Description:
The complex is a heterodimer. Helix content of chain A is 0%, strand content 49%. Chain A is mainly beta. The chains are: A mainly beta, B mainly beta. Chains A and B meet through strand 4, strand 5 and strand 9 of A and strand 6 of B.
Amino acid sequence: EAGVVQSPRYKIIEKKQPVAFWCNPISGHNTLYWYLQNLGQGPELLIRYENEEAVDDSQLPKDRFSAERLKGVDSTLKIQPAELGDSAVYLCASSIQGGEQFFGPGTRLTVL
Amino acid sequence: AQTVTQSQPEMSVQEAETVTLSCTYDTSENNYYLFWYKQPPSRQMILVIRQEAYKQQNATENRFSVNFQKAAKSFSLKISDSQLGDTAMYFCAFMKPPNFGNEKLTFGTGTRLTIIP
């Protein structure tokens, strides 16, 4: 069974540029999470989807971050414009509601 | 709000020895879940072991076991017969029971474990 797929694995951009991350969850997993992991820290939840509905986006900085999960499967997280402080690893995870969360390999973003 | 504290930023141990990683947490909840995740250099978080707070028996998974002290809000991970492949960051995490709106993992800052050949 394929795991959670994320792309790209690495992204380097200049500040003020837009960037997007893509996540494909495990087949059949209705819950999808985006976490932000700063260097030397544990992941922090940005947004959680139940199917196509964002049910917890309280930690998502909505002035520059947006996310979508069309058709309740794949998800895209976007930053526009990126700032230096956005340099971090962006992790996607999925689960069957209430079950174990399975993580993808993450996207390492570097903003110059 | 829940907090998770890992007071050991780095640890190292010789291969085949036993090591214990510490974790404390703060919550007003009576029922919850605790986890240890492993994050190797590949960055992929892997669940190591899980403990449900209402269960008094400590969880075990092969070489991995926990010492769960609910009153002390302590949740340590013991790795026996450590192997080179155990080298990774280890994160302790907390989650409320899975009801609508509760499925968020709160992580500690991690412990970098190095197994020395």
